[in-house]
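In the previous chapter we treated chains in isolation. Here, by contrast, the input contains four separate entities that must be folded as one system, with a combined length of 402 residues.
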Amino acid sequence: MNDKFYSLPNKKQEKIINAGFRVFSRNSYKKSPVQEIADEAGISKSLLFFYFRNKKDLYLFLWKKVEEITMKALMEAKCYETGDIFEMMYRGLVAKAGMMKTYPDITNFSVKAYYEDDPEVRDDIRAVVAPYTSLKTNKTLPPLDPKDFKEGLDLELMYQDMYLASEGYIWQMSQTGKIDVDKMISDYRKLIEFWKGLYLR
Amino acid sequence: MNDKFYSLPNKKQEKIINAGFRVFSRNSYKKSPVQEIADEAGISKSLLFFYFRNKKDLYLFLWKKVEEITMKALMEAKCYETGDIFEMMYRGLVAKAGMMKTYPDITNFSVKAYYEDDPEVRDDIRAVVAPYTSLKTNKTLPPLDPKDFKEGLDLELMYQDMYLASEGYIWQMSQTGKIDVDKMISDYRKLIEFWKGLYLR
DNA sequence: CCGTTCGTTGACCGAACCGGTTAATAGTAT
DNA sequence: ATACTATTAACCGGTTCGGTCAACGAACGG
């Protein structure tokens, strides 16, 4: 990676990154032409090869970028600074929605890269702490006080239900192509309130 | 499409179909080489071109096949022959799980094909009644009697919750590569029972 | 007004790939 | 042996791909 890339205006950096996310998320690593990414970013292929030594370099840069973006978003959202599980999930989705506003294809790219098995990049992908796993709603149930919830409620199933619905919602949104972040958040807020009324004592 | 294909042993037909589903679900139409499908199916490219006139022919055959398989599965599952919404959803998932047992990549192929926009196949895809939509859990709320459910329950949100969780679950399963149908069904059964205890009066 | 630097690109290259054809092979039944 | 069928290896022309490089234009200093 050429340091010159960082001295580009932020908007242009984002455009190139998004082009990469987009193209690499639609086809496998090998079948994703650098030319297509350049076109999508509105620059020449030569320039892209000036910023990134080769295709692999670009790909791995994007993969690390996902980690960086995700970590930053989760930090800022303060997902884990609340004991309230509903608030936690809400903040988690708000964080993801914000990411998707700037990087619409980050989710799809992340999934695709996580399962990529081209020998040219496979090992390097697995070497980076998987951003994909942090991108998902946390799969494991955090410690909860049963006294807060309706009597006899199976907390594990409750969490599984919420987790699956969240994943399902994000997936549906990311399929449609055009993402309305505000709608996402308000839709999800409604779901959260629904769950609170249903689950809380 | 050459009729000779149908006189092949069922297992071999399935193997070829699955190879097609698999390869076409991982990359776009244009970026999916026929050679790769042939390899996956364990036959030569020439033979594949003997059964199907060309790549497009094969692709559209697969797309129509999805419709056929889906319709058949939904019929046999008798999803709509019950007034019980929980039973309906359960049967729907059982049907899908059964399909995925024989055709592990049918879901991913279906989604990919639905959003395919290569001019060579785009119009023909849209000409077939979209199998993808029937593949999803039904998005619209069926008519329900509020008296059956807990007082004050928002039926629409309830259904949305179940719908999203179902979609999320199927998506997660289809991502992992190896699909354990029996586990899918028993997991989902638990979820359904959880919902029944939660929602029913 | 000239020379230098810097960001950017079009044109190009060799290699690999791809859809599709065809002549030939292997297998089987007569 | 023959005739017919299933299956393939070898091939072809055209395209695509990753990567290089010489050159171009704008900005700038002298």
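Chain A has one domain: 3-199. The radius of gyration of chain A is 19 Å. Compare these points with the single-chain example from earlier in the chapter.
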